[in-house]
Design a protein that fits this description.
With 227 residues, this protein is an alpha/beta fold. It is 34% helix and 21% strand. Helix 4 links the parallel strand 2 and strand 3.
Length: 227
Amino acid sequence: MGKNKAARFRENLILPNVIQPTRDQAINDFEHKGKWKEFFGNDHPIVLELGCGKGEYSVGLAKAFPEKNFIGVDIKGARFWFGAKEAIESDLKNVAFLRTQIELIENLFAENEVSEIWITFPDPQIKYRRTKHRLTNPEFLTRYKHILKQDGVIHLKTDSEYLHGYTLGLLQGLGHEILTAHHDIYGAPEYQPDTTPLLREIRTYYEELFSSKGKTITYIKFKLKNE
């Protein structure tokens, strides 16, 4: 482990906006489950960024929407350290970072506790044997439905045409509500994401990287059907 990476891990231990439960703590009675409003000290809606990387979306949205609380979720703490530090330096009280596996999300948030979920540039897990790790597969969607409010929305922003197509087909096949979908949000000037502010303005590290290589950026906004 590099010195810088090790230093970030150490600093994460003392940053007030970073929560790092052990796997046992996450599975067995996680202290903030159902009590995130107490953590933030308000009753504002809670928005998650899953696989948040450096936390660009979490921080960017927190700056734009002080009336909401944002939580970046990722297992790689050395990455979201950047977002956590920026949030503190910007005096943002409405953003935090949670180091955990996304598979445990139901253990960390109570039923109907989350208003919105962003999934930004996840690994598309193209190989068939990796299907279970795709963040939009049926098992993950079931997990999200458990923690989302009834009218909660999910956003998927990715450079992977494969994951975009896979998710669209899956949503249609399962009867979920696709609110909007586009295969190239920057290449089509007629596309105006009025219902999703800052969709183009906030760019993650990976988005900048993929765009510079000529890859198109796709987007889907959807709701999970009520049983």
